[in-house]
Amino acid sequence: MSQATQLPDDAFAPLTRSQHVQSLSRPSLSYWQDAWQRLRANRRAIISLYLILGLLLFTLIGPLLWRVDPALQDVDQISQPPGADRSAILTEDYQPWYGDPNTPGEGLRLAQPASTQAVRLQWEADPDAAEYRIYRNIFPVGTERALGLPLFETPANQTYFEDRLDLRPGVYFYTVVIMDSAGEETEGVILPDGQTPGSLPNQLEVEVKRVVTLSEARQRGLVDADENPPMGTEYQFAWHPLGTDYLGRDMLARLMHGARISLFIGFFAPLLYVLIGVIYGSMAGFIGGMTDQVLMRMADFVVALPFLLFMILFKVVFSIGPGESGITPMLVAMIILLWPSTARLVRGQILQIREEGYISASRLLGAQTNYLVLRHMIPNTMGVILVTLTFAVPGAIFTEAFLSFIGMGVAPPTPSWGSMCNEGIKTMLTTPHELIFPALFISITVLAFNLLGDGLRDALDARMRNRE
User: Fold this and answer.
1) Judging by DSSP bridges, how do beta strands 119-122 and 131-137 pair with one another?
2) What is the DSSP letter of 80?
3) Please, which of 87, 278, 338, 416 could form a disulfide with 261 given CB 3.0 to 4.6 Å?
4) Per residue in 335-375, pLDDT tens?
5) Torsion of CA 147, 149, 152, 153, to 10 degrees
């Protein structure tokens, strides 16, 4: 028999607090703390959250910093893109002009430097011409002979023309076509000064520069009332960071004020119809039985109602005429017709939760119906409700943009992103910035809310947590 091992006297002494004990537990986290940690780990969701916060600051704080009236028109800077030249040269007041036979040169030429005040053309008479027709284009004329806008017809003895029609800074192309005695155009044109027959192009390229008179400069605050600067002095007009629209209104100011309309509809309408869906679905799921069947068939009936038809009906009910903003009919149509999807989701959650053991225990302890719904069932569906709300906001923003785009939502001059897209699409080939900026804001907002909704769904869904 082996000898027993001798144990020290302190082998079974209790541990003291100063001794380190290995712990296998982790800090206790609540459901919402754990969901926040999981959401923070989702980079796309956090970036989307920051974008949404930035949009809210852009909407609420932006107009306080950029104090420009969105309805104020800058007629000297119409449809100007970002970074466009804002300079204007001081010039004399306009004086009538009736040609200058002493203008040097031959063929079609400029009689005086071109400006936004006037473009004055002069040419040599053609012996075969009965009349002359003057064309203006903003693009070079090619072999297709697309001469552009016909401006005027002059008799054979008038070999000059003054263009004052809606001139803006830029490059224009002028063509003078020879017409016969029958009033028909011939193949002949007045060649520009220095151009030989048979060569192209057959139009005069003119660069128009912006000018401002002394009285106009004083009216715009560019020059003091007692100041008399020399002619040719250069001034800078008002700065528009994102350019102007077709009426000369500041795009940045209109985007800020338009965001208030779009985000108001995007937040307010979903809050109301999601709340209606939560209450309706909770009642149907908790009561169950025949009541549940009747309530859900009513929801199915609402789903079958056409949204656009009811939008038109509500505009008639609220006496919204053509050209008037239909914000109220839009909100009413959304609230009345878009709640059934939320009601179905909440009803499914309530049907599942009411069979849980803690609900049965609460009933045995005498819990009332309102306590069970408000204390146990609704809080346990908050994850689904938040995700549904997050996805409903971009849907409402897109619906407002679509209705405003087709002229049934927010009407000009009230700015909204959808109505601005409707205005910008008319000139998107020549001034694309009027369409790009509001469409970009709509796209970023919808994408940010969708990515945030995906992140919230992953963070709040217990089944997604168990898969990791």
Assistant:
1) unpaired
2) P
3) 416
4) 999 999 989 988 888 888 888 887 788 888 887 777 777 77
5) 40
The C-alpha atoms of residue 401 and residue 410 are separated, in whole angstroms, by: 9
Per-residue pLDDT of 113-146, as tens digits, reads: 999 999 999 998 888 889 999 999 988 887 777 8
**Residue whose C-alpha is closest to residue 84's, from 281, 265, 280, 236:** 236
Cα three-residue angle 397-401-407, rounded to 5 degrees: 145
Give me the DSSP letters along 317-372.
Answer: HTT--TTS--HHHHHHHHHHHS-HHHHHHHHHHHHHHTTSHHHHHHHHTT--HHHI
Q: Give the span between the Cα atoms of 125 and 336, in whole angstroms.
A: 73
Give the helix, strand, coil percentages of the chain, each rounded to 5: 45, 15, 40
Nearest to 458 by CA among 35, 28, 32: 35
- The interaxial angle of helices 382-405 and 251-287, nearest 10 deg, is 140
Flag whether pLDDT at 462 surpasses 80.
no
Q: Alpha-carbon distance 435 to 246, whole Å?
A: 11
Are 218 and 122 within 8 A, CB to CB?
no
Q: What one-character DSSP code corresponds to residue 305? A: S
- CA distances to 86, 246, 247 from 75, rounded to whole Å, are 12, 9, 7
Name the region of 366 (left: φ>0; alpha: ψ -120 to 50; beta: rest): left
Amino acid, res. 33 = Q
- Ramachandran angles phi, psi of 74, nearest 5°: -105, 90
Q: What is the mean pLDDT of residues 80-87?
A: 87
Q: How confident is the model at residue 185 (pLDDT cuts 50, 70, 90)?
A: confident
Q: Per-residue pLDDT for 411 more than 80?
A: no
Q: Tell me the pLDDT tens digit for each residue of 194-223.
A: 777 766 678 899 999 999 998 888 888 888
Listed residue (394, 280, 267, 383) closest to 340, CA to CA: 280
In b/e form, how buried is each residue of 387-416, taking b as 16+ CB within 10 angstroms? Answer: bbbbbbbbbbbbbbbebbbeebbbbeebbb
pLDDT value at residue 102 = 78
